[in-house]
Design a protein that fits this description.
This protein is α+β, with helices and mostly antiparallel strands. The chain is built from ten helices and nine strands. The strands form two sheets. It has a five-stranded antiparallel beta sheet, sandwiched between helices. Strands 6-5-8-7 form a four-stranded antiparallel beta sheet. Helix 1 packs across helix 9 and helix 2 crosses helix 3.
Length: 270
């Protein structure tokens, strides 16, 4: 993909922003010229307020005056540049921390964004765990109580020095991994059910966990090794795909604003 080798791709994939974003909406989608001029004046007051160091609430209160439509504001938290609509990404790319954009005119209103923080990330490094487990499955042939008794008996043997792989091969109800002495290979974050992942992250390299339950039954896991894995190229490809999709979608900016409203703190003044 040619985009991946472009300077635009390299820049977008290396930057995260935290923004204060305020929208001055029009009265409706068929706003009159007078309404658009009123919105533009409010937007300029928003920019001045943010430039003066006011926080989100203060800037909205100070700027609104007698303007009828509700102002909408959000603190985005740190987000990747590729998650921003292209019109906003193009503006913030030229700003330094503490600077506020000029008003960004859209079909539904006027947006103003201030860069609160900006972080570079040249590599995306994530951990991987080489993991084994023993499962006492809960099913129609084995109740939860029986499975718990079984896993506790295995745990006692481990505490007494028994070999994890031998016990997994002999007793685990996960036949696939049992044939590999319990080995699940290298596990990425998000690969396993939450209960398993939480226990895995809290188990030291070379150690085994206490018994715990998941939707599949009772487990004991062992972390054989931990390594750091570079997923920068995969991350860049995914981010480039997302960015190109957003750039080609007619409603990209409005879709992003809707997502922002549903996931971030928003305060509306009436």
């Amino acid at each position: 993909m040619l985009f991946l080798s472009s300077p635009e791709s390299a820049r977008l994939n290396q930057v995260q922003y935290r923004l204060l974003h305020i929208r001055v909406p029009y009265l409706d989608n068929t706003a009159s010229e007078q309404n658009r001029q009123q919105a533009a004046l409010v937007a300029e007051r928003v920019k001045s307020s943010l430039d003066a160091g006011m926080n989100l609430d203060q800037a909205m209160q100070n700027a609104r005056g007698d303007y009828t439509p509700d102002l909408q504001g959000a603190d985005t938290g740190l987000i990747n540049a590729t998650a921003l609509p292209p019109a906003i990404a193009a503006k913030v790319d030229k700003l330094t921390i503490g600077q506020t954009s000029t008003p960004i005119v859209t079909v539904n209103g006027i947006d103003i964004v201030k860069v609160v923080n900006k972080q570079q990330q040249n590599q995306v490094i994530v951990p991987k765990w080489q993991t084994s487990h023993i499962l006492a499955r809960i099913d129609s042939n084995q109740s939860s109580d029986i499975a718990e008794q079984k896993i506790n008996a295995i745990y006692q043997q481990l505490q007494q020095g028994a070999d994890f792989g031998t016990l997994a091969a002999t007793y685990s109800d996960d036949t696939g991994s049992a044939s590999q002495h319990g080995s699940l290979g290298w596990v990425n974050e998000g690969d396993m059910v939450p209960e398993f992942e939480t226990m895995m992250k809290n188990t030291a390299k070379g150690d085994f966990s206490t018994p715990f339950r998941s939707q599949f039954g009772w487990h004991i896991l062992k972390v054989n090794d931990i390594k750091q894995h570079d997923i920068t190229e995969q991350y860049r490809r995914n981010a480039a795909h997302e960015y190109l999709f957003l750039r080609s979608a007619p409603q990209a900016q409005e879709d992003w604003l809707q997502e922002l409203r549903s996931s971030a703190y928003i305060k509306i003044y009436e």
